[in-house]
Amino acid sequence: MFLPVAATAPRLLLHPGLASAAAVAGQRHFAASSGASVPTPEGVDPGGGWQAELDLELRRRRELQERGRSPKRGPGQSPGPPEGGAGGPSPEGPSPEQREEVQRGVAQLELFAYPTNRRTPWATAALVAASGCLTAAAALHWQLRVCGSPSLEELRPRAASFAGALEGCSVGQGDVERGEVHRLLLASLLRAGVQPSRILTDIVVLGCCGTLLERLQGPGFVLSLVLGSTVLTNLGASVANGRMVTAALANKGIDQANGDASVSAPMPCLARVSSTSGGVTALGVFCALRHGRWAAWPGLPLPVAWLMAPVFVATLSAFLGYGGQLREYKAAAEAAAEVAATASIEGRTASSSIAADVSGLDVVVSLAACEAVEGRARAACQAPPEDVVAWREELQEAVDRLPPQPPDGAFFADLCGAAVGVVAAIVLRRRVV
Predict the structure, then answer these.
(1) Which neighbouring-strand residues pair with 255?
(2) Where are the alpha helices (DSSP H) in 110-182?
(3) For residues 191 and 275, is the Cβ–Cβ distance under 8 A?
(4) Residues 184-209 pLDDT 10s
(5) Looking at CB atoms within 10 Å, which of 79, 83, 186, 258 has the fewest?
(6) Mean pLDDT to the nearest integer, 270-292
């Protein structure tokens, strides 16, 4: 009659927590056969037998295990939802409702999103190619034609034509008043004299932001935004820079247009701006405000808004340095006016073969061309042409007599571009995706 307990003992040993229940069950079974009495533990049915006690102990063990798996709660915290219920993880994984809720949250954040449309951004590519081709053509013309001139007779007209082309790709307040509106676009297409890092930054911003917006809105939207903002920003930059320079000279009694301070002094014409990127800045600001969390490129975990950080740093640096440049220009303008007034009173004239109507840009470009021709001749172990050397010396004397050049106001185009981008994002917030 002890066979059931003996057969069950090996399995009970596998569960140490059931040892007490097994002991009580054995005692009860022995007492029932011998007629002895065994005290009954509290909560145990005396007539249920050892099987009932084992079931009770198993139930207690399961409750303890469930309590051990449940998270500890602090005072005042309500118990969470049951495991596998709504709002909690189930053994089979997240439910379709949970997946849908996560997808809605991701869609609201728009983190690293990108349009499913993968069409070729022809408008963006055309803008990059137009600026790149014009800049590359100017660089090749300078290296191959101007700097490769074998004699002074060929160097003079080539340098003058190159200087005229550079001046045509700049814009001033007087040009706009004369109706030369084509300069408002050319001033941004030719990127001459710009740091390579800034050129690379503008290419990245135009390529990434232009591609994203073109795949969302189409090529017409990108062309309208870039070209329209380029015209507006160059117009604003030329007016702002011209007024700043004019006000700086007017405070000292120097007329910038006539270039005199009670006498005729050689002063530059109205300030000009060139190699601007206001349209690119407007495009980047608009894209950062409307789709700032979207990916800059498919599969690239970089928010498109972060692309504008180098542009803002460069603009801030130029803005901080503009004040010092303007003060230096004022001091140099005063000195030039005093020298011109003294020379006019004494009746002295400078003897030079340089024409009086030659602009400062022509002199600087011609001097750079002469130095390039001489450098190439020395690199080839040849003596530079004597007429080129003589012209360079005259140009150096002319440079010393040149009036000071106004500071670079290209950063005004970036400031205007940021303003245009903000306004466009506000106006079109309900009309574009």
Answers:
(1) 260
(2) 122-140, 152-168, 173-177
(3) yes
(4) 999 999 999 899 999 999 999 999 99
(5) 79
(6) 93
CB of 376 within 8 A of CB of 405? Answer: no
Helix (H) or strand (E) holding 301: strand 300-303
Pick the closest to residue 207 from 128, 278, 262 (CA basis). 128
Cα of 372 vs its chain's centroid, Å: 36
Structure tokens at 146: 């101007």
Find where tokens 């089979």 sit: 92
Query: Which residue type does 166 have?
Result: L
Cα gap 251→265, rounded to integer Å:
17
Name which of 236-240, 257-261, 400-404 the model is least confident about: 257-261
**Residue 109: its pLDDT value, please?**
62
The C-alpha atoms of residue 301 and residue 55 are separated, in whole angstroms, by 57
CA-CA distance, 155 to 62, in Å (whole number)?
Answer: 99
User: Cα-atom radius of gyration of the chain, to the nearest Å?
Assistant: 42
Looking at residue 272, the DSSP 8-state letter turns out to be E
Please provide the DSSP assignment of 174-214 as one string.
HHHHTT-TTHHHHHHH---S--HHHHHHHHHHHHHHHHHHH
**C-beta of residue 362 within 8 angstroms of C-beta of residue 387:** no
Binning the chain into helix, strand and coil, the percentages to the nearest 5 are: 65, 5, 30
293-345 pLDDT per residue, tens: 999 999 889 999 999 999 999 999 999 999 899 888 888 888 877 777 776 66
Amino acid residing at 55 = D
